[in-house]
Amino acid sequence: MSNIRIQDFRKRKQEMCSVLSTISLTDESSVHKSTAGEEETLTSEKPRHHWGKQIEFLLSCVGYSVGLGNIWRFPYLCMQNGGGAFLVPYILYLIICGTALFFMETAIGQSTGLSTIRIFSMIPFFSGLGWCMVFASGILSIYYNIIVAYTIYYIGMSFTWVLPWSHCDNEWNTPQCFSFSGNETSNQSLIGLSTGVRRTAAEEFWRYNVLEISEDISVLNGIQWKLLLALIAAWILTFVCMCKGILSSGKVVYVTATAPYIFLTVILIRGCTLPGAWYGIKFYIVPDWSRLKSIDVWISAATQIFYSLGPAWGGLITFGSFNKYTHNVQRDAILIPIICGSTSIYGGFAIFSVIGHLMHATGTNDTEQFVQQGPGLAFIAYPQALTMLPGAAIWSVLFFLMLFTLGIDSQFSTLEAVTTGLNDRFPRIVGKHRMLLTLVVCFVEFLLGLILVTRAGFYYFELLDTYATAFSVVVIGFLESIVIGYLYEQIVGSNCSTRNQDFMFS
């Protein structure tokens, strides 16, 4: 049966090659007529929507690729792996691997006009690969939206004259709490940090107010209603952004993909004017070339490319499938990875300038006391640093608005791969009810994410983030490269493949 399907696939592709070889490159109407006919044969569905403008595809890819990892993961990796020296393997991988993976996925989506499930079903032995991408994106969307919910809660709590994580006079604070902005001296603060006995006010707010974390993963201790409301708001916003597919999300990205750069620039300008900003920036950019001898540095750089650009999740293929057949995706494959990498570096300056001010104010040169990876940097270290600024509440609102726009943009872009994949796989069932499909997917994922708003929820968040997607997406990316780069050539033929590419980009 598999051989019959492969032969049938080869026959259809050979017919398409013969069509392409006789088409006039100047007759654009013939292009769309031929490709639309082929798409109808493969999917038996109505013609696919295209981006309203080319800039919508560009902004959608930027919003998908530039996410929370650029702000809370990249600066930490730089500090841990030799500062400016880390940029060498990072930029190298960005050029060699990032650009190639981005081009491969967007080009295959654009050339076929299909989502991940339909593309890999053309090669029966690897038909499950498309489903794996959809499942991985679905799992990611479940716990990624809880981060968006955290930012919504922090934004709400920032609308006060005195930030609740700036002092130790709250009902949730313990006797071990201390505050940099309180009456205690810097030496007392440093003793608290170095011994590990005491906790900052920002850490206690995160642990005992936001998370209300239980002592063990098995102790759920009920749902936190404040986080539940924030999660509901996050999923409603996600649905609104993508209820009409790219017809709605393509317009939303004009705001969500550009607003983070405005917030980031404002924070950077303020950070660089603070006393001691250079202390933090120095730890960020001064290179330690000896670290390049460590294999861990190179692994971290390669992993960051996967986290930031987002290949193997299905999102890039999905976005590419909405391009017109002759869209210049080569240009975007160069431009978008550059934007993504530059944003990571740019965001590091904004983060470390404020951290440097905190180091200066407390009289310590140990950045590891303040800079943590992941949520620790976004919800403990940086909010703690903001409490030492004049008008701290304003800067807190700006910072968490930036995190919110970064998070919601990546969230609905990732979920687009799920809904589009299901829509393409079951066109007769979904039909014209695309909005209903989106609503059902959002509601199901909301229900699956309820465990994350329990008092043991953060344990499950770390479990999913560490084991559910990190390793699986690397395996998916490896198999995807083999299937698209090798088996496609074997089944279709190198002449036809080259002709398809020449025709698309001429």
TrEMBL record:
<keyword id="KW-0915">Sodium</keyword>
<feature type="binding site">
    <location>
        <position position="409"/>
    </location>
    <ligand>
        <name>Na(+)</name>
    </ligand>
</feature>
<feature type="binding site">
    <location>
        <position position="63"/>
    </location>
    <ligand>
        <name>Na(+)</name>
    </ligand>
</feature>
<feature type="binding site">
    <location>
        <position position="406"/>
    </location>
    <ligand>
        <name>Na(+)</name>
    </ligand>
</feature>
<dbReference type="Pfam" id="PF00209">
    <property type="entry name" value="SNF"/>
</dbReference>
<dbReference type="GO" id="GO:0046872">
    <property type="term" value="F:metal ion binding"/>
</dbReference>
<feature type="transmembrane region" description="Helical">
    <location>
        <begin position="467"/>
        <end position="488"/>
    </location>
</feature>
<feature type="transmembrane region" description="Helical">
    <location>
        <begin position="227"/>
        <end position="247"/>
    </location>
</feature>
<keyword id="KW-1015">Disulfide bond</keyword>
<feature type="binding site">
    <location>
        <position position="66"/>
    </location>
    <ligand>
        <name>Na(+)</name>
    </ligand>
</feature>
<feature type="transmembrane region" description="Helical">
    <location>
        <begin position="84"/>
        <end position="104"/>
    </location>
</feature>
<dbReference type="InterPro" id="IPR000175">
    <property type="entry name" value="Na/ntran_symport"/>
</dbReference>
<keyword id="KW-0812">Transmembrane</keyword>
<dbReference type="InterPro" id="IPR037272">
    <property type="entry name" value="SNS_sf"/>
</dbReference>
<keyword id="KW-0769">Symport</keyword>
<feature type="binding site">
    <location>
        <position position="70"/>
    </location>
    <ligand>
        <name>Na(+)</name>
    </ligand>
</feature>
<feature type="binding site">
    <location>
        <position position="410"/>
    </location>
    <ligand>
        <name>Na(+)</name>
    </ligand>
</feature>
<feature type="transmembrane region" description="Helical">
    <location>
        <begin position="125"/>
        <end position="155"/>
    </location>
</feature>
<dbReference type="GO" id="GO:0005886">
    <property type="term" value="C:plasma membrane"/>
</dbReference>
<feature type="transmembrane region" description="Helical">
    <location>
        <begin position="334"/>
        <end position="359"/>
    </location>
</feature>
<feature type="transmembrane region" description="Helical">
    <location>
        <begin position="301"/>
        <end position="322"/>
    </location>
</feature>
<comment type="similarity">
    <text>Belongs to the sodium:neurotransmitter symporter (SNF) (TC 2.A.22) family.</text>
</comment>
<dbReference type="GO" id="GO:0005283">
    <property type="term" value="F:amino acid:sodium symporter activity"/>
</dbReference>
<feature type="transmembrane region" description="Helical">
    <location>
        <begin position="379"/>
        <end position="404"/>
    </location>
</feature>
<keyword id="KW-0472">Membrane</keyword>
<keyword id="KW-0479">Metal-binding</keyword>
<feature type="transmembrane region" description="Helical">
    <location>
        <begin position="259"/>
        <end position="281"/>
    </location>
</feature>
<feature type="transmembrane region" description="Helical">
    <location>
        <begin position="435"/>
        <end position="461"/>
    </location>
</feature>
<feature type="disulfide bond">
    <location>
        <begin position="168"/>
        <end position="177"/>
    </location>
</feature>
<keyword id="KW-0813">Transport</keyword>
<keyword id="KW-1133">Transmembrane helix</keyword>
<protein>
    <recommendedName>
        <fullName>Transporter</fullName>
    </recommendedName>
</protein>
<feature type="binding site">
    <location>
        <position position="308"/>
    </location>
    <ligand>
        <name>Na(+)</name>
    </ligand>
</feature>
<dbReference type="GO" id="GO:0089718">
    <property type="term" value="P:amino acid import across plasma membrane"/>
</dbReference>
